[in-house]
Amino acid sequence: MTPAAAFARLVEGNKRWVSGDLHHPDRDPTRRQLVAQEQVPFGAILSCIDSRVPPELLFDTGLGDLYVMRTGGEAVGPVVAGSVEYGPVTSGTPLIVVLGHQRCGAVKAAYESLREGKPLPGNLQAIVRALQPAYEQAVRDGGSDPVDTMARAQVRLTAANLRANEALAPLVAKNALAVVGAYYSLDTGKVEVLFGAPS
Prior knowledge:
This protein has 199 residues and is α/β, with parallel strands linked by helices. The protein has helices spanning 3-19, 29-35, 55-58, 78-91, 105-116, 124-141, 146-164, 169-173, and strands at residues 43-47, 66-70, 95-101, 178-184, 191-195. Helices cover 48% and strands 15% of the residues. The longest helix is centred in the last third of the chain and has 19 residues, at 146-164.
């Protein structure tokens, strides 16, 4: 599957999610048996841990269709980067989507921590550190909703870093892989493409 075809499949699935005309593909015992021994997902999604943003549902997909990595605010470290690399590098997965979302609690907590200079407890501070470049970008960009600006900046920065990643950049260069930045509306269910849609 090409990056454009994989992306089109996600777009169509999200249209079904928004309209409520869901197909629930690849969710039966036959599919379970088919993918039990081998998987060849057509896409990889890096999204937030938010319980309202389940990629398999909002793209109307099923078993074996997507690799899904979820971290607070799409924060990326070496293990997460390796997880994102896995599909494209090992089995030719042609599409990565970095999916931010409206009213992100992780981004809001990081924004407030950085603005007020008050560290968060435990390992939550690791999320704050990972999101600091997005905070700095949001401060430079301004806007009426700084948390939303930061959430969108996080998507852009994360996708740009993945495109430049040592393992992924050669695949992007030969158009075997697209890295798309997207943003999910909790209110409408629609996924907005911020940049990187393959043609």
